[in-house]
Design goal:
This protein has a five-stranded mixed beta sheet, with helices on one face. About 25% of the residues lie in helices and about 35% in strands. It is α+β, with helices and mostly antiparallel strands and about 220 residues long.
């Protein structure tokens, strides 16, 4: 079995990225400051033609979806419910939908089952919001590390790119090498990632700045 090499020979001074302007970073390694929940809500409300006073906001969550961060904005007005996905980096509307909703059941007519469903929904929304906030803090820390490393990907991001391309997560994977290589002539700074999984050996070279896969190889694992 090969030994695990973890070598990141790069530490450059940089300013700490503040939490209010943290960078939301996808697996491509590119980053952009998020617009914030309030701005995302304004964009959705404006597109729907609904004022904030007329809207019943049901939740705004920062989510990682298909390689990018989006705000999931949900609200209702009258008998219509709205659901928007707003790109966190620039406010572009990724998707939107609106549906007719039934009139609310009067409080005196609600059953214990109705109340239980409402409580469960409220709890789920709160848990999702807390999970999103935790993920955002983790991404902010990754962005800080990347800034200190001169804008390069972190080793964990490089490993995640390789694993995703091979169709694996960290479960059942033996990571054998995750090493940073400085730029050399025409070769850019890159990560050399090697791991075994499912009876196969995988080797990746990943551009340390952009996250682009420069080379990939896979072979049957030796007995």
């Amino acid at each position: 079995m090969k030994k695990l090499y973890l070598g990141i020979g790069m530490v450059l001074g940089a300013a700490l990225i503040g939490l209010t302007g943290y960078a939301a970073t996808g697996r491509s390694g590119l980053s952009a400051k998020v617009i914030g929940e309030e701005k995302a809500e304004e964009i959705a409300l404006d597109d729907a033609g609904v004022s904030r006073e007329e809207a019943l906001m049901q939740g705004t969550l920062l989510e990682y979806d298909d390689g990018q961060y989006v705000y999931d904005v949900e609200f209702s007005s009258g008998t219509v419910s709205y659901d928007y996905d707003i790109l966190a980096s620039d406010g572009k509307i990724v998707s939107s939908s609106r549906d007719e909703i039934q009139a609310p059941v009067p409080a005196e007519d609600r059953t214990e089952e109705d109340r239980a469903k409402e409580e469960a929904l409220e709890k789920a929304l709160q848990e999702n919001k807390e999970a999103a906030e935790e993920a955002a803090l983790e991404e902010a820390e990754a962005a800080r590390e990347r800034a200190e490393a001169g804008g390069f990907l972190t080793v964990d991001e490089a490993k995640a790119i390789a694993l995703s391309d091979a169709g694996y997560d960290e479960t059942g994977v033996i990571m054998e090498k995750a090493r940073f290589e400085k730029a050399d002539g025409d070769d850019p700074a890159q990560y050399e990632i090697e791991f075994t999984a499912g009876g196969m050996e995988y080797e990746y070279s990943i551009d340390a700045l952009t996250g682009k896969i420069l080379e990939r190889e896979s072979d049957q694992e030796d007995d």
